[in-house]
Amino acid sequence: xxxxxxxxxxxxxxxxLSLFVCGLIVALSGGDPAEAxxxxxxxxxxxxxxxxxxxxxxxxxxxxxxxxxxxxxxxLFNIGGEGQLYVGGGAAAAVGAWLNLPWAxxxxxxLLAGACAGGVWGAIPGWLKARRGVHEVINTIMLxxxxxxxxxxxxNGPMAAGVAVSQTRPIAGTAVLPLLWSVPPAGVGWGLGxxxxxxxxxxxxxxxxxxxxxxxxxxxxxxxxxxxGIDVGRVTVRAxxxxxxxxxxxxxxxxxxxxxxxxxxxSPGYGFDGIAVAxxxxxxxxxxxxxxxxxxxxxxxxxxxxxxxxxxxxxVVILQALVILFVGAEYVGKVVMRKVAGSC
Length: 344
Hints:
The chain is mostly helical. It has one domain: Orthogonal Bundle (ABC transporter involved in vitamin B12 uptake, BtuC). 76% of the residues lie in helices and 3% in strands. The protein contains 13 helices and two strands. It has helices at 2-28, 33-45, 48-73, 81-98, 103-132, 136-156, 191-208, 210-220, 222-227, 232-259, 270-280, 288-309, 314-343, and strands at 179-183, 186-189. It has a two-stranded antiparallel ribbon with strand order 1-2. α1 packs across α13. The radius of gyration is 21 Å and the shape is globular.
């Protein structure tokens, strides 16, 4: 019970500190912190439409955050979730629009295409890290821009629908993810169930399989893992490939379950917000679920925050940044304390 309470406090502390700082900012700017907090909660969960929108926006955050968390377990910082999400959406749009298959085959193949495209995009920096020693942060950042501009070219070029809006042809009805719950304009599709199931599967993979043991061992110490007979390069490539596949699947779910086509800028930054989700979840697959719901709620409530409490919606961005800052500060503090303890 004490251990569980300690972990709960550790998870909530960065969020509480971030809310406290944001409350100070609101108070210093002449606003009411309590009113702003109520507006956030009511905007995200105070109505059926708000809940549906929160769940819809939490779905891609859950998948991308899960991918980032898995990579971090291997000691790899995947900042390429946005690019992997884009190529996954592009592959899903191509397969969904150009193939003519029964629903039982077309939808799984479309989602699989998105996951495979994201996996390949994640494996590239993994291979460069394993074989050439190039840091994955540099590779994944650069590949983000390659993916975004490649998608822009395809949407306005070979895959263009020929309409005023920059988009591809709509995907076929046999490639559409059915809705579980619809409260116009928001709709919660089967993508949420897929994301929840994958969180559970990744938990089992990490903690109950030999591959998961290797991932966690490499994340703790690559040199010790190599001495113990683990192929660190292989684990690196596989971990980043799986991380990219989850982000690519997020893009496919957005195309198949939300937009039903591919727009040039179809992601509002889910790939980057997924980093904050993973950090807040402490890289735990099950912790990603509440963290994604939190950030999905913030994305839903930002407009209500401005309309109801008169607080600029940019406060949500500040809150997200503070969460990352406090989580990072806690990690740095633990490293410094270990070094001080070791020197003593």
